[in-house]
Amino acid sequence: MNEKKSMGQRIKKKWNNGDIPMWLMLFPTIFFIVVMSIYPFAWLIRYVFYDYNGFKAYFVGLANFNRVFTDSIYWNSVLHTFEYAFLKLLFVLPLSLMTAVLLQRKRFGSQLFQGIYFLPTVISSAVYSLIWYFIFATYNGVLNSFLRAVGLINDPIDWLGSSKTAMIAVVIVAVWGAFGNYMILLISGLTGIPSDVYESAQIDGANGIQTFFKITLPMLGPVLKVVIMLAITTAFKDYESILVLTAGGPNNRTHVMFSYIFQMVFGTSQAASQLQIGYGSVLSIISALIVGIVTIIYLKFSKRMDEIS
Amino acid sequence: MAKEKTGHSVESKKTKAINGVIFLLLLLLASVTVYPVVYIGFGSFKLNSELVSGGLRLLPEKFILDNYVQAWKIANFSRYTANSLMISFGVMTVSLFVSSMAGYVFSRKEFRFKSLIFNAMVMFMFINVGSAALRPLFELAVKLHMNNSLLSIILISAGSGQATYVFLIHGFMNSVPKELDEAAKMDGCSFFGIYWRVILPVLKPALASVALLSFRGGWNEYILPLIFTMTNEKLRPLTVGVVALQNAGDGAAAWNILFAGSAIAIVPIVLVYIFASRQFMGGITAGAVKG
Question: pTM score, two decimals?
């Protein structure tokens, strides 16, 4: 009796000081972490030992791992991921940095330009990839019409269907869709640089290019590092646009790790290929590790850059 | 004195020329950036024969509305639009509640497992297994008979975005003075009452960012609804519906419907963006800096 009362009082106290409401308010967040992060991860780790086609699962031990070593399509897709990420960053970073520096101050109608450059990032990458699919079309696409009109080519280029150009086309779309996002992040970093630093540089007679390399770039350093890391991790994760543009083709030329895994785990829309979910699980964990290693190497590298300068 | 003056004007002439070139380059980049959107907008009013024959002409030779009528009535786009709206508003509502409650608790309470929960959220932001993680969730939804409603799509979309939004709210919360909570507590407000009556109104700017970003997230979701509606066309949102037409096999014959469908899929979100571009960009910055 006595204990029951004290129990009731304890609950009442916990209710009143917010301990119980706190856990209730945190419940959805914890629920999402458990159901959407931990559970799928544990599931994937279990199925790496199975051959699973969506209906029946057979225990196969380490067979899936052995297969990885001889799967040249996968390792080529890993190479393509690096190629894609490298090419994307090669254009996205300078473009976003240049536009950010030019548009941070109020001139040229900079607000309007910012608004336009950021526009692609609000559109679904699946839908804008579809639009680019029309633009790249071989015979009635606008890009070939334009290149022919200005005399750069005579015969139409099969942008998405030729293994020479497909990756270029994919990267063009990726750069178009992404640079505005990083521009905005960099502008917010630039506005954090106090204006009197620029004024004293001007008094000392520094020109625009000197100011950029001696002041803007070093002072932007911390923000730039975060932006580069975001850009790297995002570039390694991209595959939605590729699924719409080329579905990994032609001849797997534009397959990146995650588009290949998607087809293993969910099949292709064209052909209902046999699902290989267990093997896909192995590949997804290896791919996650690859992205993780790249991220860690970048973090180490950027730290070392700090120590040198 | 006179010499100095001419020197100055030469200098400003030179900077004027440089600025002119920069302006033209910015304009060129802007045209390339905006071109696909304008192209699909005008193209959606063209006759299919004009689209199929290609060419550089941007404006339609003959301005027709029939593509939209066909997409809306025959190609099911009315249903896809309704689904897209349901998903976007659903994701937005769930994200607003979940992230504001979590951000409030993380900012105001010290408790056991706090850093564990927080770190788990950060860690899983960086562990990316791609679409493979959707396989167990899909099978779970089938087991719970939730694969025939939009609810599972809404919950998974909101859940996968939650870390960013929790960080955004948490960052904003830390700038809200604790005296505000204490004054409300003095007046007899409960822990939840403080959140509901005091914190939520103060959080409005951050909530606006979360609302915009999560609405965009829901509207643009593609892989997730693609997987969940593979056998159930009625639940498809616009993104999945329009891309599915690309592979329908009709090839060039359906370009006019595809153009109108793409326009339907991007116009609403572009309109939202035009009216709230500053908040969009602000939200991106706040989310990235905290995350």
Answer: 0.91
